[in-house]
Amino acid sequence: MSTRIAKPRSRMRKQPRQARSRATVEAIIEAGAHVLSALGWAGFTTNKVADAAGVSIGSLYQYFPDKLSLVEAIRRRHFDQVLSVIAESAEGDKPLKRFAQELVRGMIEAHSIHPTLHQVLLDEAPGDRGSRAAHASFQSRYLDHYTAAVAQYRRRRKDNETVARVLSSAVEGVIHNAARRDMLEAPELQKQLVELICAYLSGAGRSV
Amino acid sequence: MSTRIAKPRSRMRKQPRQARSRATVEAIIEAGAHVLSALGWAGFTTNKVADAAGVSIGSLYQYFPDKLSLVEAIRRRHFDQVLSVIAESAEGDKPLKRFAQELVRGMIEAHSIHPTLHQVLLDEAPGDRGSRAAHASFQSRYLDHYTAAVAQYRRRRKDNETVARVLSSAVEGVIHNAARRDMLEAPELQKQLVELICAYLSGAGRSV
DNA sequence: AAGAATATAGACAACATACTCACATTTTTC
DNA sequence: GAAAAATGTGAGTATGTTGTCTATATTCTT
């Protein structure tokens, strides 16, 4: 006869009240991100996370009802970090080249936090519960930066939607590949990526 | 005192002799690729594969000593398929645009077989045993196509290595992203990807 | 300082997965 | 056509993972 909430275990089982427990939760999320980034979804076990965080498995389940909700928390935190980094790197009115440079710089910084976490969160980690919404929202806000750039710098107006998608996934691909081989900081790579963006947006292909 | 071979369980436990068993092995590999592509590395269990192949779990272990050797077989087969498709799509002397078109067409075909298998094999599936070598060999043969194109179509000679890597990972990124949202066959996407390649290789960025 | 609220620990139950083994069935060989 | 070789089977074992429960330790309130 209790007032059962629709999704009893959607977010957090118990709100941390004391400073001590807030630190515990923070440690768990941070350790979780680390394990997920280093070992991938398959190696992501709650016991390993608790171990890496220096807490017991019991403490973990005190705040996260299940594995998915923990991933959810990691996802939320990481996406927020990425978006804030990118957002501040690309705003205002700048020439194309400068925009590209700052975008690339922002992307690299965002991925330097946890080199492979981003890709793992996007591809491996399941997103069944309420994450579809968060995921989509992130993707759309993420695309906005590219869409704005495309609208601002491209001469042609057709297919702007597709162009933004192509550009963003191309940039992601390069960053991801570089992260995998630990070459995110290589300056030639940054330069070439900037050139790729500029070349595509200034539309040199149609003349040939 | 026996003559122990260095890697007793590296490849196959038993060679299939009759046609029946060859079909079994084939069915297992095919089913394995399917499961891996659909469910990812985390959902890739030997029981599911045996089930999907319509054989018993015992039969699977008759030919594959462990899970890794099965992944190895899947990897080998898929990479061979991809390379052969790409190889025949990009050879001879063609204008840049035509090369780009055929490359894109080839990549899309290669990934249409099992949309996400490629990425799963590259990122998720572990490659501990002898796979590092096969993996590196594939990557290098894979890059060769891009390097050849870069050398042939670019005016500048500097940083050709980096340019090839940037180009290949950009193309991979776009293809991968399209595969994830089931848009591999969208014609605007193909067109835009071709334009991206042409724009970058014909080097329009430096003039701005 | 004592009792209530909060936090942590780790043994344990329930379940999933990789892989084995003793035996059944089919094909080949003579 | 019978013995031998090859192939196929699936319950069973060992191991690891998720998530629970209860006992204990720490912090807050008054």
List the helices and strands of chain A in order: HHHHHHHHH
Major protein interface: A-B, 46 and 46 residues
Counting copies of identical and different chains, the oligomeric state is homodimer
Biggest beta sheet attributes of chain A: none
Unreliable runs of chain A: 1-10
Mean pLDDT of chain A: 84
The number of distinct helices of chain A, counting runs of at least 4 residues, comes to 9
- SS-based structural class of chain A? mainly alpha
Q: Could you say which overall geometry of chain A the principal axes of the C-alpha atoms support?
A: elongated
What does this structure look like?
Two copies of one chain form a homodimer. In chain A, 38% of the residues are buried. Helix content of chain A is 69%, strand content 0%. Chain A has helices at residues 19-39, 46-53, 57-63, 67-89, 96-112, 117-124, 131-153, 160-180, 187-201. The first copy, chain A, has 208 residues and is an all-alpha fold. Chain A binds a DNA duplex (30 and 30 nucleotides) through residues 14, 16-18, 20-21, 24, 45-47, 55-62, 65-67.
Ordered list of secondary-structure elements with their pairings:
The structure is a homodimer of 208-residue chains.
Chain A: H1 19-39, H2 46-53, H3 57-63, H4 67-89, H5 96-112, H6 117-124, H7 131-153, H8 160-180, H9 187-201
Helix pairs in contact in A: 1-2, 1-4, 1-6, 4-5, 4-7, 5-8, 5-9, 7-8, 8-9
The first copy, chain A, binds a DNA duplex (30 and 30 nucleotides) through residues 14, 16-18, 20-21, 24, 45-47, 55-62, 65-67.
